[in-house]
Amino acid sequence: MNVTTEISEAKIELSIENRSSEINRCTGEIVLFLEQLNENADTIYKFKLVIEEIVTNIIKYAFIDNKKHEIFISAEVLRDRIIISFIDDGREFNPKSAPKPDTFADIEKRPIGGLGIFLVKSMMSEIIYLRKNNKNILKLVLCR
Question: How far, CA to CA in Å, does 30 sit from each of 26, 121, 143?
Fold first, then answer.
């Protein structure tokens, strides 16, 4: 039996409130983290887009009350991949089960929603979703 362990090269963890004003702070901190690790511009661009999309969706759709909630985000850089994780206590939503939007339909006839998740799915190497202890746990993996 072969057992391998991967050591994280670097990791950042942060917590934000479910307010749209937190999106830029969260994205900015993770982009700065990736820049300091000399990640390439294409990788940084992809993560900037997917972080904005996922955090926006969590803030807009996950919580059915008007209460304050925390969203935990981490970015971990490994030798062969980068993993961004999101944890929230909102309504259950598995983005992997979201239907693919009809990108060929006329924009006027297309239903609202779904394009952001479609974009995330197309930009990441792997998406992992779990519902554990009444929390959504979403991991986005980009292999290098």
Answer: 6, 19, 17
